[in-house]
Amino acid sequence: MSKLNLEQAKIAQARQFAAAIADDVTRYIEKRSTVAVERTVLRLFGLDGVDADGIPLPNVVVDHVKEQGRLAEGVSRPVLNAILQKGWSIREVGEAVASGNLNLFALDELPEEKLWEKGAELARASLDRIRENRNQRSAFLQKYGDSPQPYIYVIVASGNIYEDVVQARAAARQGADIIAVIRSTGQSLLDYVPYGPTTEGFGGTYATQANFQIMRQALDEVGEELGRYIRLCNYCSGLCMPEIAAMGALERLDVMLNDALYGILFRDINMQRTLVDQNFSRMINAFAGVIINTGEDNYLTTADAVEAAHTVLASQFINEQLALRSGLKEEQMGLGHAFEMNPELEDGFLLELAQAQMAREIFPKAPLKYMPPTKHMTGNIFRGHVQDALFNMVGIMTGQGIQLLGMMTEAIHTPLIHERHLAIEAARYIFKNARHLHDEIEYKRDGIIARRAQQVLDQATDLLEQIQSIGLFEALAKGMFADVKRTTTGGKGLSGVFMRDERYYNPIEEQMHLELGLVKHPKSTSRVKAPEVPGPAKEASV
User: Cα–Cα 20 to 30 A to 79, which of 117, 197, 314, 538?
Assistant: First the structure.
């Protein structure tokens, strides 16, 4: 039952509007692909490495297909044909293209049935590897048990992956449940994924598969020492969103920042590019059992937290519906929101409580990601510590799923190890002392908190109705989220979007459709059927 006495019919209406918006977007994006999607297919087939100039081989091959004017068919068909014709591995094919010794389209094309058979074989092998990672996560959670929610989530951001390991191990020993390795500033705007371990980054560390592997191994080692499973988080957003999702799935990351709108609003990435890429990246995360974190909290850094609260809720509804259409379960949706109201506001704590409790009731299965105060943090570290304590109190009072801890030096510099320790110590103290407060609290039916929550729900429903009538693209152009306006043809990455023609083939997508129970590609019925593969083992905890 709703503690806030929220109007259930209004929630259903808002969800219906969001579903219509998501269906409209899905119809649009299913006719398109991107260079990032095609590079992801190659990575999942097993293509890795760089050419003599340091350019990633997936980029080299996709650019080759594009230069030949054949990208509308996808990269799978010519690459699979070369593998079969030459008897080479995909790495050998990629290196031959990179050296100029192979033109993929100079080879006669084998019968489609042979290509489909090989494509299904490579797709199943890739997903089997991801399935094994998911099963291994389940085994760790069954062995060690799971921490109570909210999970304590902290960040490391040294720029050097080996220094990040030192910081991450320290944070785990201090009590962190999730370690997020912040990406280097600007990586979201790179249309390629850097290769290998990296030791230089500004404001964070580059997201590479080698760095994922290094950190995963380090957290497994410290987890064995502590008798706990430590979750690893990174960022599959930006121009390489699906590629990073694939690398995370292959290296057993557990949490991924993966928002449908964040890149559009805050990185000026073209909306067509982002919406196509988020769909494929979320399929991968869904299959890998990864919890996604969405970025609605960022809206309140550019818009007022009181006036724009309903835009956060509206975006949560849209993110939920788009995620469902990619195969994600509600238990994997770390929908985002934040404690960002001006601390000078009278009864601001009550308004924060209303927002958090409302989100908890509307999305009961989601491990909601609650973000700390940042906009109104100052150089006063003592007041900052109190603000963070109030934030932690709301988190435990409303049953949030993931609590990204604030640091008292948030407005000064990247936190030092001892500052992270103080933040974890404070959060653990509050969470333990108020562990079951959520179960004990009831709210006054006509009080400030209940009335505020219903007001935000009403406004969000009205906004969703407007968006449903004009479409998401037009809503983004009008600046309905975060007071930021974008256009359908503006931003970065539009040149990487293309229409699929009738010969388009993506066996990874088709296999994931089968495994996730999604609507099959229209042409799948005419192709060689992949054998049924058992779904991932049920996890002790998502």
Answer: 197
Catalytic-labelled residue, pool 118, 192, 277, 369 = 369
388 has catalytic annotation = no
- Nearest Cα to Cα of residue 260 among 75, 472, 512, 53: 472
The C-alpha torsion from 484 through 485 and 490 to 496, rounded to 10°, is 50
- Using CA atoms, how far residue 231 sits from 125, 134, 262, 296, in Å, is 25, 12, 23, 22
The residue among 429, 435, 449, 423 whose CA lies nearest residue 399 is 435
Q: Which two tokens stand for residue 443?
A: 């709210």
- Nearest CA to 95 out of 138, 131, 33, 48 is that of 48
Quick one: tokens of 379?
Answer: 């150089």
Query: Per the residue annotation, which of 262, 370, 443, 505 is the catalytic one?
Result: 262
- Euclidean distance between the first and the last CA atom of the chain, given in angstroms as a whole number: 24
In the annotation, is 365 catalytic? Answer: no
Could you tell me what percentage of the chain is helix, strand and coil, using 3-state DSSP and rounding each to the nearest 5? 55, 10, 35
- For 62, the token pair is 């996709």
Query: Which of the following is catalytic: 164, 254, 297, 388?
Result: 297
Question: Nearest Cα to 370, choosing from 318, 467, 288, 297?
Answer: 297
Q: Which domains does the chain have, with CATH numbers?
A: 147-308+331-453 (3.20.20.440)
Whose structure tokens read 């989100």? 359
User: Can you read off the two tokens belonging to residue 163?
Assistant: 């220094």
Q: CA 147, 152, 153 angle in degrees (round to 5)?
A: 125
Model pLDDT for residues 393-435, shown as the tens digit of each residue: 999 999 999 999 999 988 787 778 889 999 999 999 999 999 9
Q: Which residues are paired to 32 by β-bridges?
A: 499
297 is annotated as an active-site residue: yes
pLDDT in tens, 85-127: 999 999 999 999 999 999 999 999 999 999 999 999 999 999 9
